[in-house]
Amino acid sequence: MTFLPIVERELRVAARRKSTRRIRLGITVAAIFVVAAFLLFSPLFKAGQAGSLLFKIITGYVFGLCVLAGVFVTSDCLSEEKRAGTLGLLFLTDLQGAGVVAGKFIARSLNPLLAWLAVLPVISLAILLGGVTGAEFWRMALALLNTLFLSLAAGICVSAWSRDAQRALSVTLGLLGVLVVLWPMAMRPAGLLQWMNRCSPLVGYLSAFDASFMVRPGIYWSSMLAIQALGLLGLILAAIKIHVAWQDEPMIARVRAARQPRACVVRPRHADGNPVYWLMQTSSGLRLAIWIIAISWTVVALGWYWWAGKAMDWPTLLLGSKAVGFLLKVIFVAQVCRFVVEARRGGSLEALLCTPVTEREILQAHWQHLRRLFLWPVVVFLLPVGVATLLGQSIGTGGAGVWSALVSSFGFSSGGFFILGTVTDFLALACVGLWFALSLNKPALAPGMTILCVLIPPLLLFFIPDMFYDILMLAWARERLERGFRTRLSEQYARTDN
Asked: Measured in whole angstroms, how far is the alpha carbon of residue 25 from the centre of its chain?
């Protein structure tokens, strides 16, 4: 018998996909374009500063993508097999849980690994600009690879314990958020807790820079070992779980679910006779999580004065808002694509095509569902930036005259651009995500493709306001949705039948 036959088969299938080559090429072209744009502004920096700043910007974006890789690549790889009923067929053979997990993990890791390899030569250009050493570059490459390994391992571990795609994606995102952000903050005290924060990829990433590594090199190496051990633990747990319980819904659970009274299914208050509303019901737990994220950031940002004795400075407020906003946008994208992805998988969209429901009614139901779920949490989330901008907190402390006026104008414009950019981001994510969920042959990839196409390019094109790019993407997706919604669905089912 061939050693790890699933690994061999999955790699052969992945090698024949066009996306394997396109992803590698696209990541390289995007990184080269960012470096070329940055070089135009390099004369404005002092000697050695341009290379260091470019290195931090590129590695920061790659670190974020490595963290999110498990959310969109491996979080649904095993749960998808469970829903399709094909996972149990694998265990009718001599395969073990470790072989199944290894096959899925290696196959799904191919594209992220190739993207990591493709972007390394572009990152190394920072060495030529000065301010970055070769040792720092290789330490950062290892830190990014370890982060990617942990993210993919966490996704496949959650997938082994889940059955629903959206729940697996949300749990993976929450787990990685805890490891990257909350874990280092909670483990700040000295002693054992300070050693435990080495499991965070953020600690390994920050300790890879020369400024941190030269002071305490042990933090970097211990963090690399801890991240590797945590990733291997996730793979082991996934192999154990998938081997002993590959079917997460025993007969007792189905019988109990069937005996639930029908009164527990409540008609949505805003259904208005539109059947699409019945298919878009969302659990109260998701709504509560969205409100918790928005209110928590607002309380922290507005209450900083009482806790720290001074108001939060403008750069910290803006960067924190960007981080929390990115989390809300990821959840928003998942909800945008959830209805279409699940409906295409379960055949609900095929039933809708046979009804007199118009395309406008479907789109209106989708928009109204998203608006009721995210509108007011987003307003609460934008409140700190709006208050700081209107009260002039971004003006700064020192300076007077022309310099003070320039700083004040920049702060006000940056706050206004952030609020407008956030609004256009959500609008563009809604249209592009819905179009990708309808048009992609694999609709499960729609959330990841939406984030890559809408959120990542404005981060790389830092010299262009987000709203201009969002308007282009919004017009592109909206034109296709209004012109070929029902036609596109019919083509999808016709292609499946053939």
From this structure: 21
d(CA 164, CA 159): 9
According to DSSP, residue 216 is labeled -
Amino acid at site 8: E
Last residue of a domain, one of 189, 221, 247: 247
Confirm whether 466 is domain-assigned: yes
Torsion of CA 447, 453, 458, 460, to 10 degrees: 100
Q: Kindly state the tokens that stand for 280.
A: 């878009």
SS3 category, 390? helix
Are the C-beta atoms of 433 and 447 separated by less than 8 Å?
yes
| pTM exceeds 0.85 for this model | no
Looking at the fold, whether 406 and 496 belong to one and the same domain comes out as: yes
- Residues 101, 33: contact at Cβ < 8 Å? no
Q: Give pLDDT tens digits for 402-422.
A: 434 444 444 456 778 888 889
The structural domain count of the chain equals: 2
Q: Specify whether 140 is located in the same domain as 52.
A: yes
Q: Give residue 66's domain range.
A: 1-247
Per the structure block, which two tokens stand in for 346? Answer: 């379960």
Percent of the chain with pLDDT over 70: 71
Residue owning tokens 């790889």: 77
